Amino acid sequence: MTAAMNEKTIKTTCPYCGVGCGIVATVDDAIGHQVTIQGDPDHPSNFGKLCSKGSALGDTVSTENRLLHPEVHCIPCDWNTALDTVADGLTSVIRQYGPDAIAFYVSGQLLTEDYYVVNKFMKGFIGSANIDTNSRLCMSSAVTGYKRAFGADAVPCSYEDLEAAELIVLTGSNTAWCHPIVFQRIRKAKENNPALKIVVIDPRRTATCDSADLHLTIKPGMDGLLFNGLLTYLAQTDALDNDYIAAHTQDFEWALQSARNTAGNIEIVAQDCGLSSADVEKFYGWYAKTAKTVTVYSQGVNQSSSGSDKCNAIINCHLATGRIGKPGMGPFSFTGQPNAMGGREVGGLANTLAAHMELDNPEHIDRVARFWQTDRIATRPGLKAVELFDAIDAGTIKAVWIIATNPVVTLPDADKVKNALKRCNLVIVSDCIKNTDTVDLAHIRLPAAGWSEKAGTVTNMERRISRQRPLFPFSGLAKPDWWIISQVAARMGFKHAFDYRSSADIFREHAALSGFENNLEGQPRDFDISAFADLTEDAYDRLQPVQWPVTKKNPNGTERLFTDGKFYTASRKARFIAIRPRAPVNKPDPNYPFTLNTGRLRDQWHTMTRTGLSAKLNAHKPEPFVEIHPLDAARYHLQTHDLATISSLWGNMIARVVITENQQPGSLFVPMHWTAQFSSRGRVGALVNPVIDPHSGQPESKQTPAAITPYRAL
Ligand code: SF4
Known about the structure:
Dimethylsulfoxide Reductase, domain 2; single chain; N-terminal domain of TfIIb; binds iron/sulfur cluster
């Protein structure tokens, strides 16, 4: 290679899914915004591999469609003007209506340092917890499930467990498309060990099913019943680990009784799940006999009005068999976003505080307040995503600051969200993109630095913290999110607490809080990275991927949790949760006879603001489409390539018809990605019912009653 004089290679992390692949980026300072992307062979998440999206990152780093300067009421201005306007606007709302009249809606795209600072500002200094995140739509039910079972939001497994497993159950997870590099690792594991069995539980036949030994085409929303049936079966067939249950768990009988009451008979479970008894028995039999079992669950489980209960039904089966904390075993939730896990670390959800502390725990509130040296800290949980936009719609929230996300497209009942923002007194949006559906509604637009410009850390779904490093200088007047927040905080009188010079400063503070008085409750805390509290700038720059907890005693991190059978509950025992399975809240009816499912495509990311810039990625699926079973297509007079109108009680859209037996009769599938920016045919979020899980607040995005008719232009 004739390396140009200005060429340099930089190790960073992919900004898309929760797999968290390491990247080696080669840039030439003389050429401008061009980069060659390769997988980092040394990164333990991907060992040099990248999927289609990661490989195409070079297509997405141009300044095309970038927001390059601040704007107030569509007039470009300098930073001082914009920041003063934001600070004055927020101060005025607080004075008139109190801190709860302010809201933030942020994103799993933020780096941990950005996430920490915005939560500190809102919860610690504005004094309200009305700050939630788009991760609420992705994994909040998994968080609730872990907290109820383990006493902490602690993902027990590593990717190595998938490779060591002899049975992998993938439920509600199109892993092949949504977490492609982990799926490649699973496929490789199967090549190396033909005895490894893969069970896929999904109403649709997806690309993941190509590698499955058994595909259970479960009726939408019935996972809780299926896993309750499994717990009953394990007890009936003497497959329980009674010693483990006695030594390390509590409330088993309560959970088993509930499982027996609701799913005591395989035939009835199979019938209610829309499956054959033989297939259910095969799955249960494999599970009962295979010690090394990992159950992976993702949005198909979480995005449900009973998502938390489904997660606990899965965890119950692992606790009942002692399959946790050992190689090749465990309940493993897959998160969608690159830093969903980092957001969880810093209290990114409206009901949590930094360092995995809780807003419903006075001791935690007191501890964080003393660490931040504030007397203004929020003292109760705030509004979760759907409720938060309802409050904007109702006019009780007067000002909202949206950062790095596009709720006008992605939230359920998205037309209501759009109208709420149109009516809101003050809408501030920080984004690196110039014109998303949400940016278009902002009174104040703040240009944020993009992926290729920011420095910080992200944590992937196996708790691995990796560095994101800048490839280019900031475009235009763009700034890091933590800088923007800190500048506003300083203008509102909190300079002393937001006097950061770099992302390393913030990371050290975040690490110090994770170890602050961590023996106060007489038991170890799950999230502890206090080993990094004194990291030098240089060491932060060189930080290697590492899985938390990382303490001075344990400086190389932790591959697997609960190896000693001790959990983070008061008793140090894991809790079984009694589950009463519930069907989706809104059921199909004669007007809306289909169940509409939404999801991701292989080559697009969220609302396409970056992946939509790549011709190669757009070629995979070039326009919005709806998948329908051939019998339904015939009944509704739809042909392949027709346009169809899909409607629900909440909204409608137009999409190209794809007829496929991968769909079950009575169901439709529409991808989540298209927006007004890329299509004039509407967005699926407008159709999705705004029902939420009562424990986690996660919306039921997978099951909305819907109708389909051939499209007729007016
Ligand atoms: Fe990026 Fe996820 Fe693909 Fe890895 S698997 S390259 S993290 S999108």
